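If you are new to this repository, start here. Below is one unmodified record pulled from the training split, so you can see the exact layout before writing a loader.
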Amino acid sequence: MSDRFIGKLRPLWRVILLSVATLMLYYGWYKWIIQEELRRYNGYGWSGTLCLAPFVLGVVVPQLLRIYDPDVPGWFGWFSLLGVVWIYIVQFRLYKTVNVLYREAGMKEPLTVWWIFVPGLNLVVGLRQIHFLSQYWANKQGTVVKDVLAETIPFFSANT
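And here is the target side for that same chain:
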């Protein structure tokens, strides 16, 4: 095992359960912490704050201004789309990073990065990313993580 920092195991079932139970607050924390872990592990990359702050501010600020400032025209709310575009950029980079980790470890890349742009498949690749990042950390720790949800639905966990 390497001296490099190893991230925590977060099975897909647990991320989904905690995200739903906390009305997606856990998912925001999850997105932040995995970016921090990947940055620490790789020694480079975007921080969790850099990944999430532009998204949150980009989505929230235009809406708040549109609603609460009478001088801001209603169309200003459309600027929230910039926050949405930002999170797609972050997700694209994350999926590529997970694939690079697998490739460097001599394993098959698990994610089809371009699925992010196909409605419906973007959710699937996101769920696969959660599963495969957890599996990567498990492999690095020399352990096995049971992920009942991913094992029940092979489309989330198959890497063939």
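Two things worth knowing about this chain: The CA atoms of residues 48 and 113 lie 20 Å apart. The first helix runs from residue 12 to 21.
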